[in-house]
Amino acid sequence: MKNQIKASLPELSHWINEVASHTNPDKIHLCDGSEDEYQFLIDQMKVTRDLIELDKDSYPNCFLHRSDPEDVARVEHLTYICTPEKDDVGSNNNWMEPKDAHAKMDKLFENSMKNRTMYIIPYCMGPIDSPYSRCGIEITDSPYVVANMKLMTRMGKDALKRIFKEKEYVKGLHSTGKLDPNERFIMHFPEELAIKSFGSGYGGNALLGKKCHALRIASWQAKKEGWLAEHMLIVGVENPEGEKHYIACAFPSACGKTNLAMLIPPKSHKGWKIWTIGDDIAWLHLDKTGQMQAINPEAGYFGVAKGTNEATNKNAFDMIKKDTIFTNVGLTKNNEPWWESKDIGEPAIDWKGKEYDSDNGPAAHPNSRFTVSAKNNPSYSSLAEASDGVPISAIVFGGRRKKLAPLVYEAKNWKHGVFIGAGMASETTAAATGIKGVLRRDPMAMLPFCGYNFADYWSHWISFDKKTNKLPKIFHINWFRKDNEGKFLWPGFNENLRVLRWIIDRCDEKINARETAIGFLPHASDIDTSDLGIAQKNIDELLSIDENDWIEEINSIGKYILSFGERVPTELINEYKKLSKSLNNN
Ligand code: GTP
Ligand code: SPV
Ligand code: MN
Q1: Beta pairing partners, 280
Q2: Which residue in 80, 305, 332, 346 is deepest, having the highest Cβ count within 10 Å?
Q3: Cβ of 298 less than 6 Å from ligand 2
Q4: Could you tell me if 475 and 410 are in contact, meaning their C-beta atoms sit under 8 angstroms apart?
Q5: Using a 6 Å cutoff on CB, does residue 279 contact ligand 2?
């Protein structure tokens, strides 16, 4: 195959040789994506203890990987976008001049693969024959990365064939280095379609097809080419009559995307079905008729283990009983994986490999994860493989908010919806290093992932209004509102289908809603909660808005948006002014 690369794409061959001579690996392995290759890597990692085999009877073909304890999450402060113009990345990104960034990274990569194998991973983000898909090549010295990329992407020969044909692909270079947090950087060069990541083996920092390519680089390409690359799940809802609607939802990291994407309808919802298209990333294009179509660029899930149990997410719970790589979970004495709220078994060993002692913290790291092929998911939709994607009826924004944001509301129109997305906020989670549980603005759930200036990003979102009259309706949800004792007001998880039903009924113009200053809210009777046993006062609170709190909120959103300076689109500023005025007039 190496000769084939030389003949078909000399430029790629040149890059591989250049990287090899700079990083000085012991061996070079071009990945073909086969099952044999996967098995070979797994066997090798069992020997090196990079993977620990789990109980073969209850968890066949499942493994545990323990990362370095200082390398367990994305590192937003060490993630950069490198473009010639600083203004192009905005205050939402760290910036470095490309020349300086290359120099810094090249120094780190020097001889970094000595005594190691360099793997070349051709991959395709999206169905292999879809015009919306994009390819990349990741070079890495981590077999764990290769195995994860095999589960998460369409990896190997077919991707390489497509790369030969298209001749355009993202070049990603990754090395685990010494895992020294002081020598850890994730750099993106959107104009060169290149990524350089050093010093971390963690998912979002090291699996370069995921956040680095499919969001940061892709969002830049999408802006140039007129589409959107978003941090969104894509879910299909089928009613008892067999009608299907597809919804794309942007919630920040660890805020419920995987759970919603594969929920199981509650018992009260006979005949309803949920179909998963994707759980983390959506690429949205307008087709020739102006309909918004979505593909999931990924082929697997890198999901949060903690909290996954039979009641919260049975589909996930079942799909990770085979063919799964677990990262940083605990172990039971029977060598089964264990995490907080698994609700079965007891922890014997913690995620660091020490005997479990509750005084030393949780058994599983709060950001412990599972990696599994989407094919294992009982609710996986065959349309996730469709080259033209699925039609999107609604876009839903949401976050973790103890107070303020109601269970659900609807934007008055597209521009107002963009304002709602731009004003999103959520409490921080364990998915990134740093303080947890602090409210921060996270527009469209893209704060860590938008590869360019948010002001330009909002203009790009707004521009869709002129391109078609078939845009999806926009909504906002909050599953995380709490009462004064700190208890969740809404049961969440599978019961969230009730809210999706309201959203769909609104899209189909089947029901009315209550117009308020912030948008359309449901009439309580339009969300069926009769069998849930929730106190009426809780329902009323979930569907209420406190105007004084909202005046404060809108002022804070306004300040945030305006802080992006002259490039902020006038339409967004007008939305802010309109909303501020109508709240103050009430
Ligand atoms: P990333 O993979 O980091 O992007 O996360 P995600 O958005 O896919 O989040 P995920 O579905 O994995 O959920 C994260 C955490 O939120 C888990 O611990 C879930 O148990 C919890 N969670 C998910 N949905 C709900 C819900 O409706 N209500 C409540 N209270 N918790 C939820
Ligand atoms: C997230 O943090 O949003 C994730 C996990 O989905 S990671 O791949 O690390 O970004
Ligand atoms: Mn995510």
Answers
A1: none
A2: 305
A3: no
A4: yes
A5: no
In CATH, 230-299+383-585 is 3.90.228.20? yes
Q: Tens digit of pLDDT for each residue in 433-473? A: 999 999 999 999 999 999 999 999 999 999 999 999 999 99
Q: Give the pLDDT confidence score for residue 586 in this predicted structure.
A: 72
pLDDT at 479: 98
Determine the Cα–Cα distance for residues 66 and 71; give it in Å rounded to an integer.
10
Reported as a pLDDT band with limits 50, 70 and 90, residue 522 is very high
Q: Which fold has domain 301-371?
A: Phosphoenolpyruvate Carboxykinase; domain 2 (2.170.8)
What is the pLDDT at residue 585?
85
Return residues with CB closer than 5 A to ligand 3 (ion). 253, 280
Is residue 546 very low, low, confident or very high in pLDDT (cuts 50, 70, 90)?
Answer: very high
> CA geometry: angle at 36 spanning 33 and 41, to 5°?
80
Nearest to 442 by CA among 426, 420, 458: 426
Q: Which of 62, 135, 249, 255 is catalytic?
A: 255
Alpha helical stretches, state H, 226-355: 257-261, 314-319
Domain positions in the chain:
2-50+79-225, 230-299+383-585, 301-371
User: Does domain 2-50+79-225 fall into CATH 3.40.50.300?
Assistant: no
Is residue 1 scored above 80 in pLDDT?
Answer: no
Q: Tell me, in angstroms, the distance from the centre of ligand 2 to residue 431's CA.
A: 6
Short-list 373, 400, 402, CA closest to 481: 402
255 an active-site residue? yes
Sheet holding 369-373, edge to edge: 52-53, 63-65, 325-327, 369-373, 300-304
Ligand 1 and 256: CB distance under 6 A: yes
Q: For residue 8, report the distance from its CA to the centre of ligand 2, in Å.
A: 34
> Residues 535-539: what's their mean pLDDT?
93
Residues in the chain: 586
Per-residue buried b or exposed e for 505-515, using 16+ beta carbons within 10 Å of the residue's own CB: bbbeeeeebee
In the predicted model, what is the mean pLDDT of residues 210-214? 98
Identify the pLDDT of residue 2.
78
Assign 530 a pLDDT band (cuts: 50, 70, 90).
confident
With vertex at residue 78, the alpha carbon angle to CA 193 and CA 353, rounded to the nearest 5 degrees, is 110
Distance 279 CA to ligand 2 centre (A): 11
Q: Which of 91, 105, 93, 120 is nearest to 195 (CA)?
A: 105
Q: Does the Cβ of 254 fall within 6 Å of ligand 1?
A: yes
Q: Which amino acid is at 107?
A: K
- The pLDDT value recorded for residue 9 is 96
Q: Quote the pTM value.
A: 0.98
Query: What is d(CA 368, CA 326) in angstroms, rounded to the nearest whole number?
Result: 8
